[in-house]
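Researcher: Quick one. two chains, 441 residues in total.
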Amino acid sequence: MIKIEARLFATLRRYRPEVSLNEPIVVELAQGSTVEQLWQTLGIPEDVVKQTFVNGLQADRSTTLHDGDRVGIFPPIAGG
Amino acid sequence: MPISVYIPTPWRRLTQGLGTVEANAGDIAGLLEALEASYPGLKDHICNERGEIPHHISVFVNREEIDALQGLQTPVRDGDEVAFIPAIAGGAVTLSQEQIVRYSRHILLPEVGGRGQKKLLAAKVLIIGAGGLGSPAALYLAAAGVGTLGIVDGDVVDLSNLQRQILHHVDDIGRPKTASAAEAIMAINPDVQVVPHQVILSSENALEVLSGYDIIVNGCDNFPTRYLVNDACVFLHKPLVDGSIFRFDGQVAVFLPGRGCYRCLFPAPPPPGTVPSCAEAGVLGVLPGLVGVIQAVEAIKLVLGIGKSLAGRLLLVDTLPMEFHQVNLRRDPTCPVCGDHPTITHLIDYYEFCGVPGPGH
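Model:
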């Protein structure tokens, strides 16, 4: 198993409403898991528009995650 | 007896205070080189980046303007009197005494100085949206002396705007936002020329509106305009300083021509109704102040050519824990608008109410 730290931003926070102050969500995943599996574990629907960054670098659904990775997931926002 | 050269007051700090200096040269171009060798920095004050003498500076040889002679090739010989006379009246050309006082805290900064201040006064920045983000951006850019500020907004001021849109005041309710923005800006700095664009941007007018500006600061409040402005900036090769807000979250990014765009990050807007607007979800009133001011800082850095631009990064502003996260952006070669084989080659009007739930939600 690997442990990664995930943060959800803006509209995506609704999938983890219990998390206060955007503290990292620690997620345990099987070795070799990808970003797509992290989305599923966090309960973020497939069709929600989002971008995922692993350790500050843009990733895609097939990016493999490693123990200790820090993942940020955020949606487009448009308010002004 | 060498050539005698008259130096106008604003440049005398480069000539140890001397109003007349001497040099030897065969023509005006050579004279500029000789002056630069003796008084480093002087040529930069006289010539533009292309080494030409701009229209607002007149050069006289024995009281004859060189434009009527042979321009930079006008011959000069020993005993001639040459004078460099910049136009005095305000603007970006020469700082007036009042401007020197007004911008003194800028001029003190070596990274800005008189030259940088003149760049600011010559700059043309377009602010899209005179709302939460556009208000602080406009006020700070105006105070900083950005010479031309275009303001695009098709809306009128509403009481619910005043919680965050600091360009507007109680008496402005019901007035066009561009009108109240222009007044607020002029009240802070009459040096600024405000160009009001009381329009809703669309594929019909966006290229025309944006084309007259050096830098675009996007503070609009909806996805259709955000994508429209991004695409227009790509087509026009304009730097874009993008900002957006939602509840307690903000995002800021700078997109420079050829180095990626908003669509490299989010290729298409989310389907209408899937992302609530601030009108539905609410927004912390101070948040756009924070984000809009970051946009203003980035715009000023671009004008001055100083520091490290936010280009290539996205800044995520998270105000509740007060954390700033940044992620690295890259140009996507498959981007539909700025990629290697773009599929979007003209402006698109997206569904105008996208971001706001349609009927039935």
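Chain A has one domain: 2-74.
Researcher: Thanks, that's what I needed.
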